[in-house]
Amino acid sequence: MKRISAPLAATVLLTGLAAVPAHATAGLFCESRGKGPSLSLVITRGVPGGIFAATLEEPGREPRSTMGDDPPIVLAQAWIDERQIMVDIADKDLTEFVAKLRARPSGEERAVGTLEYGGRKFAVRCEGS
Fold this sequence. Notes:
Elements: H1 6-18, E1 25-32, E2 38-44, E3 50-57, E4 64-65, E5 73-80, E6 85-91, E7 97-105, E8 110-117, E9 120-128
Antiparallel strand pairs: 1-2, 1-9, 2-3, 3-4, 5-6, 6-7, 7-8, 8-9
């Protein structure tokens, strides 16, 4: 039986690891009725899973996202499990909250709750993608 050299073994191992698929992502779009704000979330599935990006859309304004270079808003904290979804979005300096989502799953790929924005709470329905 022929032995594989350590550098070759390391190369084979790393190549095999690189072939493992990345964690899948999903989306959740939370929309208020009427002319209120909406929030889109990017969620990872896998271990560990979680919310890693958000885009806030408000009537009359350009959408703002937590992604990209020097984003105007940031995810201050976020939590998602089978019982609740909580997302706090702050300004980029973390001096004030811009929006807060509190929702509960209501079936597969769906949730209902509130989105607090501009001092008001809006009822929202969320749909997954």
